[in-house]
Amino acid sequence: MAPVIPDNVVVRYRGFVLIPIVPTGWLVRPERSPMVVLPFRFPAASLDQLKAEIDGRLLDQSLAADDQGFAA
Q1: Most buried in the list 6, 26, 32, 33, measured by CB within 10 Å?
Q2: Distances in Å between the alpha carbon of 37 and those of 3, 9, 18, 23?
Q3: Quick check: 52 and 59 in contact, CB under 8 A?
């Protein structure tokens, strides 16, 4: 069974702040600027699914930066 995150707890993960919005899901915001990935909302899901989404977006951003000749 997945761990339950209380409403008043904020989770930090890979430079992002994950704020639970009960019962609709999560608000994901970068901890600081410049923002590599813009803030977004994620529907109610497990914390593992949210982390996988963040990892995917970071990978997409990294690949896009490589295509433009910039180092991520």
Answers
A1: 26
A2: 26, 22, 13, 24
A3: no
